[in-house]
Amino acid sequence: MRSRLLLVLALLVGSAHAQAPASTPASTEAPVPAESFAASYSRFAVAADHPAASAAGAEILAAGGNAADAAAATMLALGVASPASSGLGGGGFLLYYKASDRTFTFLDFREAAPAAATPDMFVDRPAPMPGRANAASQVGGLASGIPGEPAGIEAMVQRFGSGMPLSRIVQPAVKLAQDGVPVSGAVARMSSYFGDQMRADATMRRWFEGEGPLREGQLLRQPELARTLRELGARGARAIYTGRIAREIVRANRAAGGLFTMEDLAGYRVVEREPLRAERFGHTWVTAPPPSAGGFTLMQSLAVLESLPGRWRPTARGERPGAAFLHALAESWKGPYLDRERYFGDPDHVRLPLEAMLAPSRIAARAAAFHPGLANPPEDYDFPLQAAANTGPGEENGTSHLCVVDAEGNVAAVTTTVNLPFGARYTAAGIVMNDEMDDFAREVGVSNAFGLLGGAPNLPGPGKRPISTMSPTIVLDGEGRPVLAVGAAGGSRIVTATQQVAMNVVLFGMSGGDAMAAPRVHHQAHPNELRVESEHPLDAAVREGLVRRGHAIDETDHLATAQAIAIVHEGEGVRLEAACDPRKGGRPAGR
Q: Which residue in the list 28, 74, 399, 496 is annotated as catalytic?
């Protein structure tokens, strides 16, 4: 069994479940019951894990913006309303579908290691402070990578935006930061675990009203962040990477023991990558490429599942996932997670044998190892490649997820993060700084906060980006029309949650809301345990069926939190079934 500490940390990032208070402009949102996490719209929709963030995106859409503008506004608002999960001090991935030419673009604005980073920078390094998640890769200056979200926001607006100025797009977030936003149950709960470390930072210390954690419903005002957001709106990303704010970031990082330089910030760049794409189960699946290992896990799992005999598949639309399906799903994840441990790293610094890992013969070998009535040890799915990943240069160069569909049919799926709750637990210019360096391997064979074992290709190095499980995904039907945008937050469980919500819609014919609320499971090879949710429990017969197959059940409150928009085509129009995970309390917005 995993230690209670790692379990708590894995649950906290993007996985809190309480309802957050509403903060939505009435003019931009169709009526949604206060308790509802899912709603249908006909023109546009936004699904984010905080109601105020969904409302911010909907406000921009109602004002004439498109999916890219709304995704940027939603991201910025999330950084204000859910500072435990994401913000300008973090980074992430965008998968964007442009309806006018039916093209996909993937933007990598993942955090990067500073130039002074070394492979052994965390070896025998003492903990910077007491408390939970207190390793040098998890708290303090060394834990932070160069943030990518400001550059990512600017890139998505410049590449795909409607022409709405960034100064308008930042307005909803500025208002939330200046006037205040009620603290959600999720943020309050996470502060109860990390409050002592947060109080060491002068800015976060001012968030607290007394000796205890942040109080659900209290008004959280962030005037320093409001000023930073205004400068971003006026000057674009250079306001963050050069000048006053950059100097504050470097000063704060170095005061906390970090390695940042002004050159590190000025040199940060967004990278465009080719998304992974495959035809499975009568649909086209488009998802994140490396440095995400999540997209690879999704693609290999789908390929293995499609190769299995059909007894595990639903026999009719409306059927719910049973033990046979969940068993097959869990077995299909074991091999990809082993590959992650051994081969994955930043594709700009490591030669990834991606083609060999996804080769049909290797898929067939893993499918042949599957037993419908027996949970195999992960090693049964381990098929090492003859040529391991090379650590030389490549041939080419608290997490939140949100989805947006606009009236033109453009689709944005964005996953963004500061990693653990409240990142590295220090701020600069009102920005919560990430602790993304924990996604590198601290040492080969040593696990991170989510229990993922580190491999040599993922050791830190100058300018490297750590591997991720973030899996923004868009699914097309047989006619090439988008039918689902989906993604999740929650560390190593991101891709398994994303895949289950997607297959609930695509394979089982569930509505967006039903797909989101359904119980989930998770397996990541090591430890050899099948995680299930106590707050969204499996049917007793389904659980018993998994136990009979030999799965060691590890029960936890809840797993990752997802957001999704199912696009139901009806004649010439669409019905947008936007769903926010009830495990965290988000609500959609739209019209």
A: 399
